Amino acid sequence: MFILTVAGKEQDGAYSVSDKNGNQILYIFEEEDDADRFVMMLEEREKYPDLDVIEVDNELIVKTCEMHEYNYTIITKNDLVIPPEHNDPI
Q1: String of b and e for 33-48 (b: at least 16 CB within 10 Å)?
Q2: SS3 15
Q3: Quick one: pLDDT at residue 47?
Q4: Buried b (16+ CB within 10 A) or exposed e, 49-79
Q5: pTM score of the predicted model
Q6: pLDDT (tens digit, 9 = 90+) per residue, 40-57?
């Protein structure tokens, strides 16, 4: 699985989006190509920093999110996600 991080700041956190209630949701991509495509869409917006796609252990990322009660969603190869219009940068 793959997550997005700010280039050079991989240890500082990962890209997430805000839902309609203001909760942060971590995007976890099953496919690297889908994560790369999402980064390209974000790069079209000037306010976003350079992002890297980082491979993460499937079980570890889910366990970490659940242990810290962090919301996440797994983006499968059948999902189409488009960056939200009004999400603040990382």
Answers
A1: ebbeebbeebeeeeeb
A2: coil
A3: 73
A4: eebbbeebeeeebeeebeeeeeebbebeeee
A5: 0.86
A6: 988 887 677 788 999 999
Using an 8 Å Cβ cutoff, are 68 and 13 in contact?
A: no
Q: Tokens 């980082």 appear where?
A: 54
Whole-number Å distance between alpha carbons of 18 and 5: 16
Q: Is the pLDDT of residue 19 over 60?
A: yes
Non-local (6+) Cβ contacts of 49 within 8 A are: 6, 7, 89, 90
Read off the pLDDT band of 86 (50, 70, 90). Answer: low
In this structure, what are the phi and psi dihedrals at residue 66, rounded to the nearest 5 degrees?
Answer: -70, -40
Strand partners, 2: 29, 55
